[in-house]
Design brief:
about 100 residues; mainly alpha; 434 Repressor (Amino-terminal Domain); about 45% helix
């Protein structure tokens, strides 16, 4: 019995790259902002941006939160990111990396 291939967004890698470039961040700085483990940070960001690996749901949520877009914008190939994304300002006491619902 085979499994049907899981949907893979074709534009996700390009959107993640656009986010980093629009924010003017290096891969290592973005990795810190996303709370990556230090050892794999730059290599992992590169793999996501080049479509070699696909980030997990929690990480996609972190990307979406740092720029204030809905997760659907990242994973739906029919939706576009805003022309230029900006780092979302954090509310006092709010942590964009973690949520009680994750």
């Amino acid at each position: 019995m085979g499994h049907k291939a899981q949907y893979r967004p074709q534009r996700l890698a390009a959107k993640l790259l656009q986010i980093r470039r629009d924010l003017g961040l290096s891969q290592s700085r973005l990795a810190k902002l996303l709370d990556f483990p230090v050892k794999t940070s730059t290599a992992r960001v590169s793999e996501y941006e080049n479509g070699i690996r696909e980030p997990g749901l929690t990480l996609i949520l972190r990307y979406a939160r740092i720029v204030g877009v809905a997760v659907e914008v990242l994973i739906d190939d029919d939706l576009n990111l805003p022309q230029r994304v900006k780092l979302k300002k954090r509310r006092k006491g709010a942590d964009i990396r973690h949520s009680e619902n994750i």
